[in-house]
Amino acid sequence: MKTVEIDSKPAYRLLFDDAEKRAAIRKASLKALPGVHQVVKLTEQGLPEFYSQAGQDQFVFEILFRFGMTKGNFLDLGCQDPVELSNTYTLEQLGWVGVLIDRDHKFVDACKVCRHPDRTTVILADTTKFDWSLLPDKHFNYISLDVNEDSLETLQRLLESKISFDVMTAEHDAHNYGDSIRQPMRNLLSTNGYHLYFGNVRGWHGGCQFEDWWVHPTLKDRQINSDFVWL
């Protein structure tokens, strides 16, 4: 399998105002053809470069990719920047396909330019009002839920719409909202049979507790390298 090495991270802060940089990232994205894996440069440890805030993409890589799921699909809710702090950019570069949803025009426009058009569908929408029946898939290997105070309502609507997942990283922002969002989300996911793999994950370098990471019960016993997780 051929690998196309692309180092697009340095360009991200100029996505909105530098047409040349936007064009360069899009050109790099379009290099990926069927049967070709396009990834960012490998680290010294032989891993792809991860871009997420707290290792969310690496968690998916460890618990799914390393166990043989080299192709999968994702649903990225509150996707924001197409590259910097993205939970799904690396997965896309590894050949996964998915859906990005955000309610901010600037992020949606940037994602349409900089994410691979044959692998990722980008949608401008409010996740508390979106019609989930419009999605072609009902099951996602990974769901990134990062919509701040709308996380609980969005999760309720996802589950009511019979959307399921293997892995979910779910933002509860307990440092801002206490248990008002975190505990109801935990109740919902536990009631639906999901397993809390890591609770109260912090940002890099021990920041505030802001997320829970959940897995389908069939994955709960998988042992992974978790040195990158701040709890």
Structure overview:
With 231 residues, the protein is of the alpha/beta class. The protein has a single domain (52-219), classed as Vaccinia Virus protein VP39 (Rossmann fold), CATH 3.40.50.150. The protein contains seven helices and nine strands. The strands form two sheets. A seven-stranded mixed beta sheet has the order 5-4-3-6-7-9-8, sandwiched between helices. It has a two-stranded parallel sheet with strand order 1-2. Helix 5 (151-160) links the parallel strand 6 and strand 7. Helix 5 (151-160) packs parallel to helix 7. The longest helix is centred in the last third of the chain and has 13 residues, at 179-191.
Summed up, the domain count is 1
* Alpha-beta content class: alpha/beta
Q: CATH architecture, please? A: 3-Layer(aba) Sandwich
What is the strand arrangement across the widest sheet?
5-4-3-6-7-9-8
Report on the biggest sheet: 7 strands, mixed
Q: Give start-end ranges of low-pLDDT stretches.
A: 1-17, 29-40
CATH class: Alpha Beta
Number of beta-strand segments: 9
**Topology as a string of helices (H) and strands (E):** EHEHEHEHEEHEHHEE
**Count of helix runs:** 7
Shape: globular
Q: Helix coverage percent of residues?
A: 25-40%
End-to-end Cα distance, whole Å, is 36 Å
Here the CATH topology equals Rossmann fold
What is the alpha-carbon Rg in Å? 17 Å
Overall mean pLDDT stands at 83
The percent range for strand residues is 15-25%
Q: Please, what is the CATH homologous superfamily?
A: Vaccinia Virus protein VP39
